[in-house]
Write a structure and sequence with these properties.
By secondary structure, the protein is α+β, with helices and mostly antiparallel strands. It has three helices and seven strands. Helices cover 28% and strands 32% of the residues. Helix 2 crosses helix 3.
Length: 158
């Protein structure tokens, strides 16, 4: 089961709350704002989009804080490049958007759930985009007998 809701953070330009299974994520968009000095060089021709993924300390029992920090860096990079390819940044010259994602509970498929939550938050903020993003996690589970493996979609930690 999946539960999606926009307007979850009142002070943000756009926000969303997503539950996919037991995975829970809050996404917020702040901006457009004038690009800071460090961003101005890049923001002249097109806008700047920054992404920050954070894992709540209590989001998963089995995963250490160091592992969450490594995943955060990886997910920031993937989400940043994906969202930059969809948001029409050329229409937002000299401005910046900040997208923050907070993973409240991690039961698997965090990256794809983050994509959906970020897209909903950007749409709630009325940011112009080429399209909405959707993702899926696919696993091929090995079979104990000689038959083919089984395909699993959007797996939880079970």
């Amino acid at each position: 089961p999946c539960n999606l809701r926009v307007g979850a953070v009142p002070n943000a330009a756009g926000s969303s709350y997503l539950e996919q299974g037991k995975t829970k994520i809050i996404a917020s968009v702040y901006g457009p704002r004038q690009a800071a000095d460090r961003d101005k060089q890049q923001a002249r021709a097109e806008g700047v989009l920054t992404v920050d993924v954070q894992f709540a300390p209590f989001c998963a029992r089995e995963i250490s804080r160091e592992e969450n920090e490594k995943r955060s860096v990886l997910y920031n990079s993937i989400l940043q490049s994906t969202l930059e390819s969809v948001v029409l940044l050329e229409r937002y010259a000299k401005t910046a958007f900040d997208v923050t994602l907070l993973v409240l509970e991690d039961d698997g498929a965090v990256l794809t759930a983050s994509l959906a939550a970020a897209t909903l938050a950007l749409a709630d903020a009325k940011v112009e985009m080429r399209d909405l993003i959707a993702g899926a996690t696919v696993h091929l589970a090995a079979s104990s007998d000689e038959q083919k493996g089984q395909i699993l979609l959007d797996c939880s930690r079970q």
